[in-house]
Design goal:
This protein is of the alpha/beta class. A 7-stranded mixed sheet has the order 19-18-20-21-26-25-24, sandwiched between helices. A 6-stranded mixed sheet has the order 6-5-2-7-8-35, with helices on both faces. A 5-stranded mixed sheet has the order 11-17-16-13-14, with no helix packed on it. Helix 2 packs antiparallel against helix 13.
């Protein structure tokens, strides 16, 4: 393409070939003309050679523009006599994992950052920030470093994250660093990002804040924006993963349901979806995909082990591989351990309030079968509640217990907070004020609502009934009004002021029959209808058994560890004091200490930028006060806890800002935008090839030369005025800014145009 520069000789050749031949012819008036030509010969020669030079420059500009010359990004790094303080802001959010032509956008940005460090001068200092999930920007290098090798090593270790990038946090930290920087030293801030639209132009005040921060940084330092990646990328992402069954038992099959969303125009056809259980392939389903929208897939999976089981669904890797996997931890159980608490003082032969619950959870013949019953029941009284090992149970049911003491309420609150399920059953003898004072605690306790009073209705009054419900516990009755739910009769009940707590089942007068409240890792449910049959036919009606079993499954499933998105804190239920090892998704292990028993808080993992399974394994346990070798009554048994962190798919739709949209964020703040580097293949990556296309400047120069050439043909003064005005404008803009440059250019062009009238046309034309 550069061979076209030979065309520069064409205007010169044409001028030489088409020179007008002349001959001398003696004539009387010729002397007068010769003297006139001699006076104008200097102007004519200037006009001819100037016109020839402009035309040759037009040819050169056109050839160079079509050759698309570039300049290296590293050459754009400010070169100052004094050492420079540079802040590198590298975007490592999920959208930077998109792979185009063999390299991800983060790999391109990392190589560009290393090239910038390598091109730095002696004494230049660096700080590095990472844009990733979370409100706090992880500072890769917190203090100014003048060691290029150390900076490049940190850039090499910069991890790819799976969360939504929050550039405002990194920009605020960079601005704080600039405020602390030495005022005598020049500063430069370089942002290497794909400028995902959902991150850099969010709705509302966040976009205004990002624009304010960029402009403030541009006023305190030389601001360079280096975009990477294509404008849009076709992508297929796993966005949701659920387990259809609320309670999964060992040796049984559960159904995994996943939601898959298509962004752009990914490949269509049959797509395999793999299911893995604890890393072992457990099933494959075929997803029939077309070119848009969303799809759902279900896979039956058998669980042959109990405990917290890691489940993963995976798609074939596409251009954004980080969102092609989704994970969940399923708590697979051998049994559900239920503690039934009756009031003390009952005779041995008297009926107990827990009798109907025992029959509903463990019907005769089921518990004695070959597989055994799902529910393992134990019975105690309220007088012996504090001697029971609450942590050894999944659910505690207070069956017509009239009151609770402060000590019992504290133990029950800790039990629910650590993932247990608590059910409070109504009774005629209930002391509502005791429960409100000890378990409600003005909304700070686990009780879901204020217990008002026991309501007795005359026997001749129309009894209340259960209303239809769309909650999961009423699923066995949906579409069948004769199944027993809506025909249950209630003459007496406990009135509950539920407030903002969810009502699972309501009575026909609007009073809650079952109301729940999430509390810590667990839930508490209060029943306004008695489990012992007081004032109702519910315990002997067909609705009792399925409702009780669904309620128990709902409470147990609510305690299962829910997955979180990358960047959100992951909490493990309190597992007693001691030392644990935390295994991260990349295989590294970190030692952790659980809080002491007197401050029962969950173990909180704040740094979850990378998706995967986080495993907390007990190494040892602190002995409990008392007998040597024993453990606290409410401490969980030793074992393994797992939690799942999934990619934040809000970045799965790849839509990146173009230079015009970036310009709208920066306004008139001085800055520079370098075009994205597009490597041919990852094996051919050369950091020096990170370039900026300057062909648009050459095309602008070509248009300017065309205007000058036209003006020179018409009148020499106009052409010279345009040239002089342009030169003065460019020089002034470089020194004082674009506005001053425009004013200086117009003033110079106007002055050159008016000069003949000031000094005289005859003088001007000499």
């Amino acid at each position: 393409m550069l061979a076209g520069l030979l065309l520069i000789a064409v205007p010169l050749l044409l001028h030489w070939l088409f020179r007008r031949p002349h001959r001398e012819e003696p004539w009387g008036a010729m002397g007068i003309l010769r003297r006139a030509l001699e006076r104008r010969s200097r102007r004519l020669r200037l006009e001819t050679w100037l016109l020839l030079a402009v035309r040759m420059l037009m040819v050169a500009a056109a050839v160079l523009a079509f050759a698309r010359p570039t300049r290296s990004l590293s050459t754009g790094v400010a070169r100052n006599a004094a050492p420079t303080q540079r802040i590198l802001i590298v975007d490592a959010s999920l959208s930077m994992s998109s792979r185009e032509r063999g390299a991800s956008a983060l790999e391109q940005a990392r190589l560009a950052a290393r090239r910038i460090v390598d091109a730095a001068g002696p004494g230049d200092a660096f700080r590095v920030l990472r844009i990733g999930p979370g409100a706090e920007p992880p500072a890769v290098i917190r203090l100014w470093s003048t060691d290029p090798a150390a900076v490049m090593a940190e850039l090499e270790r910069l991890p790819q994250t799976d969360g939504r990038g929050r550039p405002e946090a990194a920009l605020e930290q960079a601005l704080a660093w600039l405020d602390e920087a030495a005022p005598a030293r020049p500063a430069e801030t370089i942002v290497l990002s794909d400028f995902q639209e959902s991150n850099w132009r969010p709705s509302g005040a966040a976009e205004m804040r990002i624009a304010e921060l960029l402009q403030a940084i541009g006023r305190q330092s030389r601001l360079v924006l280096a975009p990477f990646g294509d404008r849009q990328v076709d992508n297929l992402a796993l966005t949701e993963l659920d387990v259809r069954e609320p309670l999964v038992r060992r040796g049984q099959t559960a159904t995994l349901a996943a939601r898959i969303v298509r962004f752009g125009d990914p490949a269509s056809g049959a797509i395999p979806v793999e299911a893995r259980v604890n890393g072992v392939l457990a099933g494959v389903a075929q997803l029939e995909s077309d070119a848009g929208g969303e799809a759902f897939v279900e896979l039956p999976v058998r669980f042959d082990e109990s405990g917290p089981i890691a489940v993963e669904l995976a798609l074939p890797e596409d251009l954004v591989p980080r969102d092609d996997r989704i994970r969940r931890v399923v708590q697979v159980r051998d049994r559900v351990r239920v503690l039934l608490v009756d009031p003390a003082g009952l005779s041995r032969d008297a009926a107990r309030p827990s009798d109907y619950l025992r029959l509903a959870l463990a019907p005769p013949g089921v518990a004695d079968g070959p597989a055994g019953g799902l529910y393992e029941l134990r019975t105690t009284t309220d007088a012996s509640l504090l001697q029971a090992d609450l942590a050894a149970h999944d659910i505690v049911v207070l069956c017509s217990v009239p009151r609770v003491t402060p000590t019992e309420a504290a133990a029950l609150s800790r039990f629910v907070e650590r993932g247990g399920g608590l059910i409070v059953g109504a009774s005629r003898s209930i002391d509502a004020e005791s429960f409100n004072q000890e378990l409600l605690r003005d909304g700070a306790g686990p009780l879901p609502g204020r217990l008002v009073q026991w309501i007795e209705q005359p026997s001749q009054a129309e009894p209340l009934t259960f209303l239809p419900s769309t909650h999961s516990i009423a699923e066995p009755f949906l579409g069948n009004p004769d199944a027993g739910l809506e025909t249950t009769r209630v003459w007496e009940h406990l009135r509950i002021d539920a407030g903002e707590s969810p009502v699972l089942i309501a009575l026909s007068n609007g009073d809650p029959a079952l109301v729940e409240k999430p509390f810590g890792q667990g839930r508490c449910v209060v029943s306004g209808v008695a489990f012992d049959g007081a004032g109702t036919n519910w315990p002997v009606w067909p609705s009792f058994l399925p409702l009780v079993q669904e309620l128990a499954a709902h409470l147990v499933a609510a305690s299962d560890p829910a997955p979180v998105l990358a960047g959100e804190p992951l909490e493990f239920p309190f597992a007693g004091p001691g030392r644990f090892d935390l295994s991260l998704p990349d295989g590294t292990v970190q030692p952790r200490l659980a809080p002491p028993a007197e401050t029962p808080r969950p173990v909180r993992i704040a740094e979850t930028a990378v998706a995967g399974i986080y495993e907390l394994r007990r190494v040892d346990a602190a002995p409990a006060a008392g007998a040597e070798g024993s453990r606290p009554a409410d401490a969980a048994p030793p074992g393994v806890l797992r939690g799942a962190v999934n990619p934040d798919t809000s970045e799965s739709r790849i839509e990146r800002l173009d230079p015009v949209q970036l310009q709208s964020l920066l306004g008139r703040t001085p800055h520079r935008i370098d075009a994205a580097w597009q490597p041919a293949a990852v094996a051919d990556i050369d950091p020096s090839s990170i370039v900026d296309d300057v062909s648009h400047w050459l095309f602008a120069t070509l248009l300017l030369l065309a205007a000058v050439e036209a003006a020179l043909v018409l009148r020499l003064g106009w052409g010279l005025a345009i040239l002089a005005g342009t030169g003065a404008g460019v020089l002034t803009a470089a020194l004082a800014g674009p506005i001053a440059g425009a004013i200086a250019g117009l003033a110079m062009a106007g002055g050159m145009t008016a000069l003949p009238r000031i000094v005289g046309r005859r003088v001007w034309m000499r």
